[in-house]
Write a structure and sequence with these properties.
By secondary structure, the protein is α/β, with parallel strands linked by helices. It has eight helices and ten strands. Helix 1 links the parallel strand 1 (about 5) and strand 2. The chain binds glutamic acid.
């Protein structure tokens, strides 16, 4: 299969040095493999995403010399495919609706993992509804849907930059959200459905998503699809050692550009940061 990669920015703020590093890595890997690179704007969250940020991201990419192939894919336009995948998971009995409140979750929460990849504490298995709950739901709307992870199953994958990775379900990852209560498909589901549909052969993204890859491998299996290869690019940190966030305007590509840096300067700075 010919190499097909993708750039998948979320338009909730301006791109910073970390994005420059990740997207340049994606661009180079696609080019070196003689393949193609798609651009998918991950604009699912109607409250946080803005068209203006998507346009600014495309401008920043073009300025950096990161070109993509073909039409831009807007994730928000792919709802039907996301609902179809939800239906398939519902029929397979691997997802359930959960009415557990944030407060109950907080009260039941274990101490969060120390390492930064764990975004949130594991969902406690005691709060799962009985098996079969939600089997007859007509639509995912109105309630949070979670994927029921197996007990203690190893999930292993090889990463082009991070080497062999191994996670254990119920230990490193718990039941994760596939559909949000506000009727928005969750990141984990949408990204897998779209990567499958777009024929992506390698996912290049930030190392903050390593643990998500373990979750996503469960979705590939449940949806009967072959997973892509993986390449997680190290995060760029600020002077204090914190990973960059979209609010760090000082290291936004536009700020650096306004200060007179060239695309080559910005990319060199991204490569030099650890
Ligand atoms: N949209 C995600 C982000 O900007 C990236 C998702 C992915 O590459 O899988 O963090």
């Amino acid at each position: 299969m010919p190499y097909r990669g993708r750039l998948a920015p979320t338009p909730t703020g301006d791109m910073h040095l970390g994005h420059a590093r990740t997207y340049m890595a994606a661009y180079r890997r696609a080019r070196d493999a003689g393949g193609t690179l798609a651009l998918r704007i991950e604009d699912l969250d109607p409250l946080r995403c803005r068209r203006e940020y998507a346009e600014r991201a495309m401008e920043d990419l073009a300025w950096l010399g990161i070109a993509w192939d073909g039409e831009v894919v807007w994730q928000s336009a792919r709802r039907e495919a996301h609902v179809a995948a939800w239906r398939r998971l519902r029929d397979a009995g691997v997802v359930y609706p959960s009415t557990v409140s944030r407060r109950e979750l907080r009260d039941a929460a274990h101490a969060p993992h120390e390492d930064e990849e764990a975004a949130e504490p594991l969902f406690p298995v005691a709060l799962r509804p009985p098996p079969g709950t939600g089997r007859d739901a007509e639509s995912p709307a109105g309630v949070t849907w979670r994927f029921r992870v197996p007990d203690d199953a190893p999930i292993a994958f090889d990463d082009a930059l991070q080497g062999a990775r191994r996670y254990v379900t119920g230990v490193d990852i718990g039941d994760f959200v596939v559909w949000r209560r506000d009727d928005v498909p969750a990141y984990e589901l949408a990204v897998v459905v779209d990567d499958i549909a777009m024929g992506i052969t390698e996912v290049v993204r930030g190392a903050d998503l390593l643990r998500s890859t373990a979750r996503q491998l469960l979705l590939y299996a449940a949806l009967g699809a072959t997973p892509p290869a993986w390449c997680h690019v190290p995060l760029v940190r600020d002077a204090a050692g914190r990973r960059l966030a979209k609010r760090d305007d000082a290291l936004a590509i536009r700020t650096l550009r306004a200060r007179g840096l060239s695309p080559a300067d910005v990319l060199a700075l991204a490569d030099a940061s650890t």
